[in-house]
Write a structure and sequence with these properties.
The protein is of the alpha+beta class and 79 residues long. The chain is built from 3 helices and 4 strands. The chain has helices at 13-25, 39-48, 70-78; strands at 3-7, 30-33, 55-58, 65-66. InterPro entries: Glutaredoxin, Thioredoxin-like_sf.
């Protein structure tokens, strides 16, 4: 399973909640900062997922999403 979590620099409540939930579920993920991404990546996120941080990209049936989604983190944990 591949999980990448794009977060904002500094404090982001939804980002922290997502990382905490992933950690508690034992799901490994690669953290990345949105600010470090090229403009093309940000534009793709805007067009396909939205731009509410965090943005979570997976290769599972849970798909990819924006924001804190405990329901989808549960789906990842069950996979």
């Amino acid at each position: 399973m591949s999980v990448v979590v794009y977060t904002k620099a500094g404090f982001c409540g939804q980002c922290k909640a997502t990382e905490t939930a992933l950690d508690r579920a034992g799901i490994a993920y690669e953290p990345r900062l949105l600010e470090d991404q090229p403009a093309e990546v940000i534009e793709d996120f805007k067009a396909t997922i939205g731009l509410t941080a965090p943005i979570v990209i997976t290769d599972t049936a849970a798909g990819s999403w924006a924001g804190f989604r405990p329901d989808l983190i549960g789906t990842l944990a069950a996979a």
